[in-house]
Amino acid sequence: MAESISRSLRDGCLEGEHAPALTIEDSLASSLGSSVFDHFLAHLVSQIAAGKSQARGLVLVAFNRSPAFYLELLRRKGVDAQHVDKRVRILDCYSDPLGWKKRVPPLKTAQNLPVKANVACFSDARDTNKLMASILDLGKGTSYSELDATSCNVLNLVYLLTEFVGQDKSRFAVAIDLVSSLLRYTSLPTVAGLLNKLRSNDQTSCIVWLIHSDLHEQRVSAALAYVSTMVASIQPIAQCTDEQTSQQNSVWLGKNSDKAKLHVRLKRRNGRVKLLAEELHLDQVGVKFTAVGAQNSNVAKSLLPKVQFNLQLSEQERVERAKVVLPYEHQGNGEEIQIYDGRRSLSDSISISQPSVASPVISDTQVAPGIGEIHYVRDSDDEQPDSDEDPDDDLDI
Amino acid sequence: MNPSFSSPTTNLLDEALGIGCTGSVPWRIALVQDCVEASGAFLLHHLLKRSLSAEAAGAVVFLGLAQPFSHYDRVLRKMGCNLSLQRNKNKLHFIDLLDLEFLVAGGTDQNAIEDGFMNLYNRILRFIEANNLMHNNGGWIRIIIDDISLLEIAAQGSSSHTFDFLQYCATLTSELDCSLLILNHGDIYSSEEDQCLLSHLDYLSDVVIKAETLSTGIAVDVHGQLTIINKRALGELGWSSSKVYNFQFKLKENAVEFFYPGTKF
């Protein structure tokens, strides 16, 4: 299922359609959203680097983590540094989102970190129009001097950026690492408007963004779900109850720290909504996805005892069992129940007799030839048939 | 001199937080969340003491909104640490913010509050700059905030501006060898909207330390319990899975004792 999401992002959008958009949402109960975002981001970048995707480049809008983190992430995931330099542009909204660093003297003795050519600093997070323009500029690879950056070789950057997607109408992908941060700076309608504009832009291939659902009202998640074509929601594996003690809580936290359930809602073009679920767990390498219940069914199978005979019936065996006629069972074929009182001799024809309390009640059915039957001949055939008398009358009790 | 300090003995808290012998830590942002019944101030005192020990190779910026400098000086002196001496040696930079009007000195409009936070950020930067000049760019910096709820009050209740300021402090942790320790109260937020800052802090932090009372009530030998969620312990290959620790504590006159439940005799 995660594969289908990656495929959808890789394939991008059709002509005349809006770009596919993936919302990844998590909460404090299961905060693996950032890791899932990293997974899809790295996968998309590797597809772009290999030339297998519709997008020729990617613009990453970094609010939550530093550009250096993402460059290191891509290096760890095995994406060639040259491809990263050429195909990935990072709009740094993390270091100075409100422009404070321009208004205070910079640190004089700070080690001057080499400014990466593909990182552009953005200092006006409250202005979504400027943000939109910067994203598109980076995506199209227009003159870098229009962007707000300092201490970099402008000529070098213009060269690199024009190489980015070229001057033709190639598409680029957009990834926003935390829409929740953007929602702190501006209102929901403005953010929804920005995302819609990005989706409808001719050169956008696909968009991915992450949101922490418990930082906002329910309507925010709903509004973003309307804008997106895929919603991947991360839920905890184990549910927490309010009555849990702190120790139980710590066990619950431990269980939910690296495992979660991924619920995906895919919106098809024809309007059909597909709901899928998978389990994910986080290890040293990254996020791994497995089918739901794969472990559960194995457990169920192992509960059956391992013996050398079959404890279950096959379908044919069930049918045969249903056909078996039980000797004392009324078959419901319309015939009257005939009670055998134990006194009829073999020569007597089968006839209806009065049922008596003392006599054994035996239902008698028309016996088909060839089927075994038991004939009981009483010793005292001459005696009167049993009546309602107490059989212990002859005893002196 | 700090007689009780010849070599800092490792305790459960230091192990859980990964505090090295030089006082360095593997995390960038830690949140201490306490409540009325179990105050987390002792954690700040303990971590302040560890940060200013003889072996410590860094400096501390302390934003004091809850208590005056003399209070911390008195408490740490009992624990064997002379804050006045450390301040004179420029290992400790104490920013006295007891007067909660410091942010609105220039007016009460939103721009004035933002400017106030920016000035505070500038003061921190200047200290870091001075420290780097003195120690030739060596050593780590620890910023301790006591406490964030008072910072929000100083900002006239604007959690947005407060979080903006924290965001800038957080960027310092990724650009420099800097860590951030924040104290917040978990039981002062009534509605879900107000809890927004709590949730933001939880997402931001690498380590969350919760100080709570025992579910069984008050005890003589056990004063409370700590739950430490170390979310992002750095490994060689990147993030490792988070670790959760749970143990109890007892506050003594000069120190704190940490032990696992049932091991206190």
From TrEMBL, chain A:
Report the subcellular localization. Answer: Cytoplasm; Nucleus
Q: Where are the residues of the annotated region Disordered?
A: 372-397
Under Pfam families, the record lists: Elong_Iki1
So where does this one cross the membrane?
none
Q: Which GO terms describe its biological process?
A: tRNA wobble uridine modification
Bias (Acidic residues):
380-397
Report keywords, A-Z.
Cytoplasm, Nucleus, tRNA processing
Gene3D superfamilies registered for this protein in UniProt: P-loop containing nucleotide triphosphate hydrolases
Report whether Cytoplasm shows up as a keyword of the record.
yes
Pathway given for this chain reads: tRNA modification; 5-methoxycarbonylmethyl-2-thiouridine-tRNA biosynthesis
Provide the GO MF annotations for this entry.
Answer: tRNA binding
Whether tRNA processing counts among this entry's keywords is yes
Write out the similarity annotation: Belongs to the ELP5 family.
List the protein's name.
Elongator complex protein 5
Specify the species: Zingiber officinale (Ginger)
